[in-house]
């Protein structure tokens, strides 16, 4: 395995050993374990703005940002004040609060296609519930998803999924009944002809197509305009719903989501991550006419003890109320400078590299070929990824520990951080090619 020679991580190592006695793999979510990069994970003590600090006292510029939610960085002053006030008032009632409507209105203003919304506590719940709604609304069983897209870990969606499944090289999970997997039809991402063929053959049985309109769970891969437009057309033509899973891309790829970038209105949208500002929030929403089929307005069942939790709503409100489209222009500029810098550094050392960024999401792929789908990512140099990953950590840069994950940026990252990060990549490439 790889060892961090330049950092003292004694306490993290001991903590991981202890954690493995009580939790499978020592973690509560698989990619955190750093298994894919062949080493022990860092245990985090705290974060402030763009930095995280591990329990050994090492400081890193953080580009994982809790896998997306922390667009204002760690422990943003206003968010902390609002959360503290909210916690002092009470953490949960299981009764309506004004904050739920407030967040619903904010989301509707930013993404007008979400006329009505239902709050949940994770992205997994959001997509699982949206799929049930689509099936209940259309009275159909089959769903379409794209290879390498990840929509959380509910049974129907755990087929040919990206993120952790891709990281560990598996295409579904023991425990997912074959019958359910059978109703999930998969196609390659960005495969326009494949989509048309699938709908020509099965169109009348398909309840919905769910897609990450900018994929983020095999690194960042934008859906092409033609691909997303085709999806909009074939779903409409066959009476199926189109679900944009913007759990990651919402308030990330663009302030108004990918739907604004491509000017396509999905029937339903799923949200997560930034919508909770670091607290557990997910949501699904869309047209009145569809959403009103949900209980208690309609009869398609959905519920949750902590859905719309007041602390979680406050996390979302206090985050989104501080953001405007101008912030995204700033962050986009910085990410462009960062990915350009990484690409130039790779060129300098003769390392094959393709970089992608959409808004505040970015990826670097160890392959110089075009990256448009899951197979393209699988062809990347994983060994080089691992080597450079540890070098980056040693240089104080914390990036996603897998080629199949996205990196992010926050409003707190500065031009100086970008320069330091490019220098860290340069040093990592230098060490890795020696
Ligand atoms: N959809 C997408 C696009 C995601 O990126 C994720 C999580 N990375 C999910 C759904 C699942 O969200 P959660 O981890 O909150 O369950």
Automatic annotation (TrEMBL):
Sites bearing N6-(pyridoxal phosphate)lysine, chain numbering: 273
Cofactor needs: pyridoxal 5'-phosphate
EC number: 5.4.3.8
Database matches in PROSITE patterns: AA_TRANSFER_CLASS_3 (PS00600)
Keywords of this entry: Cytoplasm, Isomerase, Porphyrin biosynthesis, Pyridoxal phosphate
Pathway where this protein functions: Porphyrin-containing compound metabolism; protoporphyrin-IX biosynthesis; 5-aminolevulinate from L-glutamyl-tRNA(Glu): step 2/2
InterPro entries: 4pyrrol_synth_GluAld_NH2Trfase, Aminotrans_3, Aminotrans_3_PPA_site, PyrdxlP-dep_Trfase, PyrdxlP-dep_Trfase_major, PyrdxlP-dep_Trfase_small
A Pfam family: Aminotran_3
Gene3D superfamilies: Aspartate Aminotransferase, domain 1 (3.90.1150.10), Type I PLP-dependent aspartate aminotransferase-like (Major domain) (3.40.640.10)
Entry GO MF terms: glutamate-1-semialdehyde 2,1-aminomutase activity
Catalytic activity: (S)-4-amino-5-oxopentanoate = 5-aminolevulinate
Subcellular location: Cytoplasm
Alphabetized HAMAP family for the sequence: HemL_aminotrans_3
Family matches, as NCBIfam families: hemL, PRK00062.1
Subunit structure, interactors included: Homodimer.
Protein family according to the UniProt entry: Belongs to the class-III pyridoxal-phosphate-dependent aminotransferase family. HemL subfamily.
Name of the molecule in the record: Glutamate-1-semialdehyde 2,1-aminomutase
Organism of this sequence: Limosilactobacillus walteri
